[in-house]
Amino acid sequence: MKSILLKKQLVFFLIFCCSFAHSQSKIQVPANAVFYMEVNGKLLNSKTNWQKLNPILQNLNKNDQEKPTWKDFSDTGIKNDAKQYHYINFNDSIKSYTAHLILEDAVKFLEFIKVSSKKELEITKKNKYSYTNLNDDTFVAWDGKRAVISGISYTKKLPKFDYDYAADSTVVVSVEEPPMIDSAYAEADSTYYEPEKPFNYKDEIKYLKDEIKYTKEDIKSHQDDIVRMQKDIKYLEKHHKYPEEKKATTELDEVASAKPTEEYDEEAEDLAYQKEMDSIKAEDFKIVKAFAEKDFDRYFDSNMEVEVSKEMVKFQDANSDVFVYSNYGEIVKNGAYKHLAKLYNFGDLIDNLYNSNSSYNLYFDKNKVKAISNYQHRDSEIQKRFSALYNGKKNKKLMSLISDKSVGYYAINVDGHKYFDLMYSLFESKNDSGKYQKELELMMETIKIVLDEEAISKIAPGNGVFVLNALNTKKVEYTDYEYDDSFNDKEIKKTKDVVVPDFTFAFATENENYWKRVFEVLTTNKELSQKFAKNGDIYYLKKDPKNSNYIDQIYFTVKENIVYLTTSLENLVPKKQSAVSQKWAKDATKHPSSGTINMQRLLQGLEKEFTTISQKEGFNLFRKNIGDVYFKSEVKKESIETEFNYTTPNSSENSLMYFFDFCNDLIKISEKETSTAL
Amino acid sequence: MKIIKYFFLFCIFLSLTSCFDIIDKINLKADGSGEYAVILNASKSKTRLQSISKMETINGKKVPKKSEIENKVNQASNVFKSVPGISNVKTSLDFDNFIIKLSCNFKKIENINTGLEQLKAKNIIGKTVPTQLYKQNVAEKTFIRNKIGSYKNEYDKLSKADKEVFSDATYTSILQFENVIKSQTNNSYTVSPNKKAIKLNGNILDFILQKQQIQNSISLN
């Protein structure tokens, strides 16, 4: 009996140890991380020309302090051909950025951060690692093999705001920060969620007493305002205008045009304010440092391998140079719109709109940069509706408007009818949350009854194209002044060139008559007919005799189930297409969304806009370095996949070095301008 | 970060840059009275302004309607009319060419300073606009164009798009005298061949950032 018990205890102990060891083995990227990036160091390092890159990085690393700059950025102690993991997550109080790096030389790494920070660093040595802070919110920790960079932003948690009261009440409740009830030293889990503290009546009493104090001050201030307004009313009843000496300015940007007034001691006020800010900063630094240290402890206690959830890397391509994942739902839920959504009781609408992930695979090929993004809504039903929307009919006739001379185009082929299904699903709630959810649902049901979705989608089924045919110039006259010998002025007329786009916007319709009626109204309505006229089937904007319109002529018409809006009638005639434009047209027909811009043609058209020497220099630099842009979207792997391509000129060894070379040229121009100015 | 700043240089080139000129002229008689005129000429940007005038907002700011601008100019005109020493106030608004003019006669140049102060007090011009611009001593035959402070801080606070408005804007100041000019302290002002007028011209940004000085002390014969 005793031996059986002993065996059971031993087995239990072994299972416990194994699971303990396993659970402590790897460091998990938080499941609610809003941003995750994996850098394929091996691929990127093979494409980097460090000899070229070092001077650029040295230049960027310079600052006004005359301290030495790190010379060789390929030798910083960080293993260049290893993977790097970066992620951001936040909650109410903490926003943190973490980067995990592999080191090949810890001593060199320490030297690198000392030189790069350009100041004395206070290094704290712990049992398994050392760490330092580069500034008030950035910390670096390292041991012999790994390093972690942690950037933490801490905002004091505000007391719970009664959103229902604020939404109902006609008076906005002012939210005051609580006094120092900072218990952020409390046990924080790996996701930095501050656990709910047990209720402490003494803290609560102190907080309420402070609230009373602030509210009394508010009341006094409001009472003063009321007295002042009552006096103003009496004065206005008598004199029908404000007294000049009593009219208070309320402009927030009031700046003394001469000397500061004697009553206001700006210097003393600034000093007091600075002291207060310094004390708050010191307090916040203590909190942030504690969080960073806790995180470092956890990391260096593990086997220091980083584990990422399958959901985050679902669309990762192992051959990409950089992979990025972002969780829009979390960003909105915990970010800027968090309180906005609660305040206006949109129910699940905001959640439904943003509850999605986007992943990006970035490739620096020899002659182009390619980025493939995958957008996926976290609700599979809503994702299906997005996919259905992106499954439109093809329309070859529209895409025949793309010609050899086109500067660029943007085309869509979506199913307009499915748009309504998508919109309705965004307003649905899975858990009946939201104060006005029932009312919203009733409104949506009523809209479904009232709207004839089929008829509406026939007006514009979902196929459209915008083609930028050319950038032309036109001469415009303007007034200037010239001066005689005695500096008497005289008005003269001069001319200058302005760039005007020549474009065509066209979309399919299954209800030609509807659009004909719209155009007829433009030409027959008493007021609109002064601006619009008709010549046969072609409607047009009348030319302004004062030449005050930017675009002189706009024509619109509908024929053969296509509505056209264009700046030139020639654009309505299908043009000859070469192999290149045929390919564009084919792509535009095939994909739900696609587009391209020939940047050289675009810049050529814009040349007249750059008149000064420095503008021309910058323009020439762009013209020399700019490449073409092409993108296409389609439904793939239960997501909307968009491929974005940017072709780079052959001047650089590959597309990665192209960006650094370009930046370097920009820096040189900017430095030249600065030195000329000095 | 520097790279981002340089990268957006291209976007700045493509942004809605516009240029305008401000001209102010003073014609001073020997007894200290004279004529003052200020012209805001945005004609060179009229194509863009015509498009902007059809919009509701630009760069996050409301686009003023024609009636609002007329109202403001009329208010300014009324204020100037109420200043003792100022007479014959005229305004002209050309919305086709985007030129606004205001002119008046004065008994002494300090009346103009008072007029500007009044405009500021009534919020017709901003609080940062300098007003104590001129000073003269008829007996000693001196005329002073006062120094204005730097507006670098205010300029730095503007958004990139708002800063671009000033990039090609120019300022011209013309001072014409009945007497011959004996001397001046600021050689940036060009003297006319007949030595009875001086002209200063430059980029508005240079004056805002005090790269070019506007103050001048002129002695007359």
Give a structural overview.
The complex is a heterodimer of chains A (678) and B (221). Chain A has 678 residues and is an alpha+beta fold. Chain A has a domain at 75-249 and 265-308. Chain A contains 20 helices and 22 strands. Chain B has 221 residues and is of the alpha+beta class. Helices cover 29% and strands 32% of the residues of chain B. Chain B has 8 helices and 13 strands. In chain B, a hairpin with a 2-residue loop joins strand 3 (57-58) and strand 4. Chain B starts with a helix and ends with a strand. Chain A binds chain B through residues 60, 244, 247, 249, 251, 253-255, 257-258, 476, 478-481, 483, 485-489, 496, 498, 546, 548-550, 606, 609-610, 612, 615, 618-619, 622, 663, 666-667, 670, 677, and chain B through 1-3, 6-7, 9-10, 13-14, 21, 23, 25, 39, 41, 43-44, 46-48, 50-51, 96-97, 99, 120-121, 123, 126-132, 149, 154, 168, 172, 174, 176, 192-194, 196-199, 211.
List the helices and strands and how they pair.
The complex is a heterodimer of chains A (678) and B (221).
Chain A lengths: L1 H22 L2 E3 L6 E5 L1 H7 L2 H12 L22 E7 L3 E9 L3 H12 L6 E2 L4 E6 L2 E5 L3 E9 L8 H6 L32 H39 L26 H36 L3 E3 L14 E6 H7 L3 H7 L4 H6 L1 E9 L3 E10 L2 H10 L6 H4 L8 E6 L2 H12 L9 H14 L2 H7 L3 E21 L5 E20 L3 H13 L7 E4 L2 E4 L13 E5 L2 E5 L12 H12 L2 E5 L1 H8 L6 H13 L3 E8 L2 E9 L7 H23 L1
Chain B lengths: L1 H6 L1 H6 L6 E8 L5 E8 L4 H7 L4 E2 L2 E2 L3 H16 L4 E9 L4 E8 L3 H12 L12 E4 L4 E4 L6 H6 L2 H5 L5 E8 L3 E4 L5 E2 L5 E7 H5 L7 E5 L1
Parallel strand pairs in B: 1-9
Antiparallel strand pairs in B: 1-2, 2-6, 3-4, 5-6, 7-8, 8-13, 9-12, 10-13, 11-12
Which keywords apply here?
heterodimer; A: 678 residues; alpha+beta; 24% strand; globular; B: 221 residues; seven-stranded mixed sheet; four-stranded antiparallel sheet; 32% strand
